[in-house]
UniProtKB/TrEMBL annotation:
Coiled coil: none
Origin superkingdom: Bacteria
GO molecular function: protein dimerization activity
Protein name: Sporulation protein Spo0E
GO biological process entries: regulation of sporulation
Length: 52
């Protein structure tokens, strides 16, 4: 398995955030699972940005 660079990981997380936001727009309601995923993605982004 190829090791991803920090930039690659950030881009992948950003794409997941976009997909999650698109799901928010399509859903009639926001599920606890979507909220949990959103929080986890935010935490990962913060960790990557705080620890270069």
């Amino acid at each position: 398995m190829q090791r991803l660079s920090k930039k690659d990981v950030l881009l992948e997380i950003e794409m997941l955030r976009k997909e999650l936001n698109d799901q928010y727009k399509k859903q009639a309601c926001i599920t606890p699972e979507l909220v949990s995923l959103s929080v986890q993605l935010d935490q990962l982004l913060n960790k990557l940005r705080l620890h270069p």
